[in-house]
Amino acid sequence: MSNPHNGNEAAGASASDSVIGQELRSVHRKTESLPPEARQRVLQEELYSLISVVGAAPLVELLLERAFELGATDIHFDPQRDGLHIRMRLDGVLHNILRLDQQYVQPVISRVKLLANMDITDRRTAQDGRISSQVLRHRRDVRVGSGPTIHGERVVMRLMPDDSQYVNLAQLGMNRTQIEQVDRGIRCPYGVILSVGPVGSGKSTTTYTCLSALNDPQRSLVTIEDPVERRIDGVNQVQIDTRYEFGFVEALRGILRQDPDVIMIGEIRDAETAHIAIRAGLTGTRVLSTLHAGDTGSTIDMFREFQVPRMFLADAIKCVIAQRLLRKVCTKDREYFAPDVATSEFLKLSPEQAREVRLARGIPSDANFHTGYFGRTGIFEVMSVDGEVRDMLLGGKPGRTISDFCHTNGMISLEESAREKVLDGVTSVEEVIRMMI
Length: 437
Prior knowledge:
By secondary structure, this protein is α/β, with parallel strands linked by helices.
């Protein structure tokens, strides 16, 4: 059943499509020849220009177009006492784009909800919607969520990743040793590969990269997701729907009866899902999944909290990947400097090393949205579960004891991975401190 909409608003939006399209094309012609940094600089001017010419609704189309160009992941429409604050998340950080006066708030919110096939008359409950890639003429969908606040209705648009752009493990930021460890794990004929970290640490991207490496016509691959973030040819992708009591547990039980070779579970959220995933990994299926855990050691402890028998853990888990995302120093506008004493101590540099090292820092400019950073890279801690690590799991050793043993025997910690990125000029000490402390 389709959602009810305000007929007058919908008709008005339809009637003005040609005017909106003409204005957007005019603005685009003025800016398409400009470099990306200039486009960023004139973004606010474009938006205000549209308001003055044809009203607030075209803002949504232009915001989406510019968000895709800039590599944004989210657009926030936040109602406040003084109007609607619009922000974009770039490289994991929200940036203020502009503030709209109260007269423009409702037309903009209604336009977003109309595009997402949401009920524009319901402003008191939370809603979820989707703007399809066909509507946007992009290969990416946009997920939309709305809900009430004390100052009015709030809407967040989440821009799904580009389906056509898959990266390998090296491009994610792993070093050669870590790539070899993960590759051994995913090449095992059965078992569980886990990507762990907090929200926004790149776990899904790592899992999709592993899935892409296993995508072969001779295998049956199935994903269970909430939501489906990337569409992959050759993979059966399942969207869970809690409205019909079709969650991860129900989907996983059903898929295990369909002869899968590889299952990707979007997230292990509870003990029941954890038990089923581990058992699937023991019975000849490769399982890829994510978990909210701080590092490799705490991952082991979380599965024990789920009361998964230690024998099952030792036999099923093949590899645990802990990760974070750090902003990269802008390659276009940067400078190099010698570290001071405090920075040298943080990086564990000897006096001789400190005299030789030159670190990079970004220069705020239009090219990097005046942050000094552009793009992100991952830092990783990869634990292979084999040999003595497996014996320690069987013996019931705590996760911290196991991870300390792995560090002693060569596992690169998240902190060490971050320091390597600083010394290589990829990121800065300030960014490491922001994310790790």
